[in-house]
Design a protein that fits this description.
alpha+beta, 620 residues, flat, 20 strands
Length: 620
């Protein structure tokens, strides 16, 4: 039994970090202290004026432990690391569920490249960001490609210089084509240094250099190069004019931070100012903020956000005064290598800027609340679906399957995934049928379902063996319900397979009417009528449309590759191509056929058969 009174008496009067544990040994709170004895004692004083959040936390503490450090600064660093490690439920947490993207410039390589990546590494390259969401980073990359025309192909330099003809990008003027051998190594690297200056917001310096280059090109009668520099200068100025000018007198890197909070959730908005211009903005969701004021929220955000950050600004303008401002500023100075100012303006231009950032934080919080309301509506539909089908749990993950082919040729299957009532398109999967010849939808569906669960089991084994991270799994988690685009026959065939696999996932077929529209669900016990006006019916219709479109899209993609292969053969037009596919079913069978067999196909003759035969043999 943990003796609180005795342990509190033995607390040291030194700086350090303390960890509060509950009865199940889970770390529920991590904090730092200048004097451990004083700080921890405050939690267990009966007359302390604690917030409801602290009172709830203290009521769950079964025991505490502490780590002594040499200084309060070391305690701050350790606190940040432990919060990241344990993510305690009573700490204010920066929600880390967004896909942080950076633009990476491999300036450390002889021939640099520029690309969008997830996260940063200590590999000598330059990273710019973070960019929240795919769109922000992609838009920036689009601008870079339009302005600087860097190579985007898979060629390696200098290995592939003068090897092969330039690709399409060169001919449509979207690449400066180092593969031609007309670009020196110095000219190549110069383009990427310009990209770095652009990403750093140093537009004026870049424009100055481009202006000098334009004048020199004009002086030496290189008018095409001069015109290209002129166009680049105009584009950069146009982009710069679209960015809000904040302060042109001080050329410092500044981040402006403001917050909006309600209930358990808060949003932090950050504006990134470089060279006096707003070059980007992001919002971040904060968890466990109930009972915390804005100063607490901003304090914990700054500590977590800049801990280990690649880019630390010269100044942080905050809506509220963070706790331990000097200590945080000192830690940031150590990371950056020079002074970092943390200011809280009350009037003037900076205060107006904070107000604008706060307005954006409030808008982000408002949008979050609307999303929550929509999620609740979706949850209500799924609860109704659970009750209607007598499921054991809410079908938060629904998987739907469909088969597509033409006259039994090139069978393909598709898996569509709906999570919490919405399509999770990144989790859709496609299958090329391997064991079924001809138009046997039942057997094709069984193959797809079998392969889906086999992949899931293989991933489970790899995760258990430490060979795979669960985040990289493509077939986990398993579905709460399976819907097949088909009727009783499909359900009967797949049910037999599921019983053989000892799998009891609920299974239903999505039945269509004479107009090929969703009519009802059918299971092993018969049809389940659903009112066409009900939200459940609309959801099932949406699911059936999605999986059908996914199957058709994959079939067309696969078929277009086959068509394009056959189209390359002299004498093979649409009629002969269709006849070959109808006869053999897939491209592999055509490749393996003999000349006499090919000539026997309807509309084929000996010459066209020889062309097909010789084409595929030459490719081997």
């Amino acid at each position: 039994m943990f003796d609180f009174e005795e342990e509190i008496k033995n607390l040291p009067e030194q700086p350090g970090v303390y960890l509060m544990h509950d009865a199940s040994d889970e770390v529920i709170y991590v904090g730092k202290a200048k004097v451990l004895k004083n700080r921890v004692t405050q939690y267990f004083r009966k007359n302390s004026n604690h917030t409801p959040k602290v009172l709830a936390m203290v009521a769950q503490v079964a025991y505490f432990e502490y780590i002594i450090t040499d200084s309060e600064r070391e305690a701050l660093a350790l606190e940040c690391n432990l919060i990241k490690k344990y993510r305690p439920k009573y700490n204010i947490l920066l929600k880390d569920d967004k896909q942080y993207r950076y633009i990476k410039v491999t300036i450390n390589e002889a021939y640099p490249r520029v690309m969008i990546v997830h996260g940063t590494r200590n590999d000598g390259a330059k990273y710019y960001g973070p960019y929240m969401g795919k769109g922000t980073a992609k838009n920036t990359m689009d601008i870079i490609r339009r302005l600087f025309k860097p190579p985007t192909c898979s060629r390696k330099f200098p290995r592939d210089i003068r090897k092969g003809r330039p690709c399409l990008n060169y001919h449509i003027n979207t690449c400066f084509a180092p593969c031609t051998g007309k670009v020196s190594k110095e000219e190549y690297r110069k383009v990427f240094f310009e990209i770095c200056r652009f990403l750093e917001g140093k537009h004026e310096k870049l424009i100055e250099e481009l202006t000098d280059e334009m004048k020199e090109a004009s002086r030496t009668l290189m008018y095409e190069k001069a015109a290209a520099c002129r166009d680049k200068i105009n584009s950069i100025r146009e982009i710069g004019d679209k960015q809000k000018i904040v302060n042109t007198s001080k050329h410092t890197d500044t981040d402006v931070i403001a917050a909006a909070a309600e209930g358990e959730t808060a949003y932090i908005e950050v504006f990134f100012i470089r060279d006096g211009r707003v070059v980007g903005r992001e919002n971040y969701r904060i968890e466990n903020s109930r009972g915390s004021d804005k100063a607490d929220i901003i304090t914990d955000f700054i500590k977590q956000f800049y801990d280990g950050a690649d880019i630390v600004p010269d100044e942080i303008i905050s809506e509220e005064e963070p706790e331990d401002t000097e200590l945080i500023a000192d830690r940031l100075r150590a990371m950056k290598g020079r002074k970092v100012a943390i200011t809280v303006p009350k009037r003037g231009e900076k205060a107006k800027l904070v107000a604008m950032v706060r307005m954006n934080a409030e808008k982000a919080l408002s949008n979050h609340k609307l999303r929550i309301l929509k999620e609740k509506e979706k949850s209500g539909v799924l609860e109704t679906m659970r009750d209607m089908l007598s499921l054991e749990k809410i079908p938060n993950r629904i998987e739907a399957y469909d088969i597509s082919n033409i006259q039994g040729a090139d069978n393909v299957g598709a898996m569509a995934v709906f999570e919490y009532g919405r399509p999770a398109k990144r989790k859709y999967r496609s299958f090329k049928i391997k064991t079924v010849d001809g138009a046997d939808d039942y057997a094709s569906m069984k193959e797809v379902i079998y392969r889906r669960f086999r992949h899931g089991l293989e991933e489970e084994e790899k995760i258990a063996a430490g060979e795979m991270n669960i985040r990289d799994a493509k077939f986990l988690p398993y579905p709460d319900i399976i819907l097949l685009d088909g009727g009783k026959g499909h359900v009967r065939a797949v049910t037999e397979l599921m019983e053989m696999m000892d799998n009891d996932t609920p299974l239903y077929g999505m039945v269509k009417n004479d107009r090929h529209r969703t009519r009802a669900l059918t299971g092993t016990d018969g049809e389940v009528e659903i009112s066409p006006q009900s939200p459940v019916f609309k959801l099932i219709t949406h699911i059936q449309d999605e999986v059908h479109d996914a199957a058709i899209s994959y079939f067309r993609k696969l078929h277009s590759r086959i068509d394009s292969e056959l189209d390359k053969i002299p004498g093979i037009g649409e009629k002969r191509r269709t006849a070959l596919l109808t006869k053999y079913g897939n491209i592999e069978a055509i490749k393996n056929a003999e000349i006499e067999e090919l000539a026997d196909v309807e509309s084929m003759d000996m010459r066209s058969a020889e062309n097909v035969y010789n084409y595929f043999r030459s490719k081997r």
